[in-house]
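=== RUN LOG ===
request id: a7f3
mode: sequence -> structure
chains: 1
length: 56
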Amino acid sequence: SSPVYRVMRGWLRNGVMPTNDLLTLVGWALASIAISLFLGLFFVRTGIKKLETSGV
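=== RESULT ===
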């Protein structure tokens, strides 16, 4: 089954999220934020360089 389903089922069943699942979710969230920031900055910098070299 889906990992998210497993985590939510365990959380709702026990009332407390297990430490292992909590660390996994925090790691996933931090990795997602880091990847989003990296891609955003990469495309902005690439766009700025293209505009500077195009002479517009």
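=== NOTES ===
DSSP finds two helices and no strands in the chain.
The radius of gyration is 20 Å.
=== END ===
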